[in-house]
Design brief:
alpha+beta; 8 strands; globular; disordered N terminus
Length: 293
């Protein structure tokens, strides 16, 4: 787990009420005073400037059913993959998939350890269920379904033993001391601050110029504990996709996308134009807007 996380992150913290992503450059924190913390108003203003010009359309159906589905999935992963206590997971993990005010309206998650399932009851009697499927992780079942529509398979890894490989492809760390230009006392102070207070936090990893310089884990969590990747998954996927494009396995102007957004295909004259439109103007992909190909 350490090798995967640290290969793509400068710093990562899983917190109780939220998952915090730290992009602090270690050199800066170790050699100079930190920049002033931006005001909430400044952060909101910057975020609005980066918003895509597309209207939000909520998914069809009862929002509480969707929140219950996400809550069941989060609880399933936390209990059967990470190994967290169910009560801790309900209070601290993945609140954005089912905010606390929504969780208060739902029944307490029921953990079925024999069948590796988590059930969340929605007022009115509907139950959303997530099931652990081994190498396929946890999956939320559609309403009314008792099992998934595919056959789970066991995956065989072809990766070498991480305990014998140097970091970042493995877990073996160098024996030489940290670089002299780093003030490790300040690095430790930063790590202490990240874990203060410690409640709800699980892990922190800090890298600097391709080297792991600090890590800390909550009781019961280690470098090998599988944790939710959350938005790290997007960074990992984008990085791997870039490598595949560079290697020629995929073409940037290929046919990807036209099946995912059929409205783009309908409004464009050809697949080539549709794909080009996706790359040039993704912010205009909307059921409420037309595209000019």
């Amino acid at each position: 787990m350490r090798a995967l996380v640290t290969a793509f992150l400068l710093a990562f913290v899983v917190t109780g009420a939220q998952t915090q992503h730290f992009t602090t450059v270690a050199t800066k924190s170790a050699l100079s005073a930190p920049d002033p913390r931006p005001s909430p108003a400044a952060l909101i203003s910057r975020a609005k400037a980066l918003e895509l010009d597309t209207p939000y359309a909520a998914p069809p159906g009862d929002p509480l059913l969707h929140h219950a589905a996400g809550f069941a999935k989060v609880m399933c992963s936390a209990v059967f993959i990470t190994g967290l206590d169910p009560d801790f997971a309900a209070d601290n993990v993945g609140y954005f998939t089912a905010p606390y005010e929504m969780r208060a309206e739902l029944g307490k998650p029921v953990v079925d350890r024999e069948h590796k399932q988590v059930h969340v009851v929605v007022p009115g009697g509907v139950t959303r269920t997530a099931v652990y499927l081994g190498d396929q992780g946890c999956v939320t079942l559609p309403v009314g379904k008792e099992w998934v529509s595919f056959k789970p398979v066991k995956l065989k890894s072809s990766l070498p033993d991480a305990s014998k490989q140097a970091w970042p492809t493995g877990d073996v760390l160098p024996d030489d001391p940290p670089p002299s230009e780093l003030d490790m006392a300040k690095v430790k102070e930063a790590v202490d601050t990240a874990f203060d207070p410690p409640e709800g936090k699980t892990s922190l990893v800090v890298t600097w110029k391709g080297r792991l310089i600090a890590e800390r884990y909550a009781p019961g969590i280690t470098a090998q504990t599988p944790l939710e990747s959350w938005s790290m998954g997007k960074s990992v996927t984008a990085t791997l996709m870039g490598v595949l494009i560079q290697q020629g396995a995929y073409r940037q102007q290929g046919l990807v996308g036209t099946d995912l957004w059929p409205q783009v295909r309908r409004q464009c004259c050809s697949r080539k134009q549709a794909v080009a439109q996706l790359w040039r103007k993704p912010q205009r992909i909307s059921r409420r807007k037309s595209l000019s190909c």
